[in-house]
Amino acid sequence: MKKASAVILAVAIFFAVGLGINYAINHYGSFHYEWKRGFTNYNTYNLAGDSVLNGYIRADGDVSVYVLTKEDFEKMKSGEPFSYYKAWEHVQSVEFDGIKIPDGDYILVVKNEGDEMRWITAKVVNKKE
Fold first, then answer.
1. Is 20 within the bounds of a domain?
2. Which label site among 4, 30, 101, 110 has the fewest CB atoms less than 10 Å from its CB?
3. How far apart are CA 117 and CA 59, in angstroms?
4. Count of the separate structural domains present in the chain
């Protein structure tokens, strides 16, 4: 009887931990990146649809920061006209404070606009509403 109780308790704990991890992944996405070297073109971050974006991006040169769809990102890379949801162009610092991300497949794109950039720091917290 004790073995059965122990197995049931172990299975219950396993499922509780799994549900907790699943909840955390689906409702809180947070990442912090820091580069101490330059990057040549773009850095991208996947955003959760129907979420709120907070954080910052800082660089020692000019960057442009866009919230756009993956399709528009492909247009940007190929030099075609593209649309965006939010944009900050030719800046060295961007602060995100409660930016509402629509439901869908959006990404945050950091585009290097300068030469010989040495560092960029990005802290992005993306929470489901």
1. no
2. 4
3. 8
4. 1
Residues spanned by the domain of 107: 31-128
In this structure, is residue 6 part of a structural domain? no
Helix, strand or coil for residue 127?
A: strand
pTM: predicted TM-score of the whole model, two decimal places: 0.69
**Phi, psi values for residue 13, rounded to 5°:** -65, -40
DSSP state at residue 79: T
pLDDT digits (tens, 9 = 90+) for 63-116: 899 999 999 999 998 989 999 999 999 998 999 899 999 988 899 998 888 776
Instruction: Note whether residue 16 is domain-resident.
Output: no
Q: Reduce the DSSP state of residue 6 to 3 states and report it.
A: helix
Helix (H, G, I), strand (E, B), or coil: what is residue 72? helix
**Contact present, 76 and 66 (Cβ < 8 Å):** yes
Instruction: Please count the other Cβ atoms lying within 10 Å of the Cβ belonging to residue 67.
Output: 21
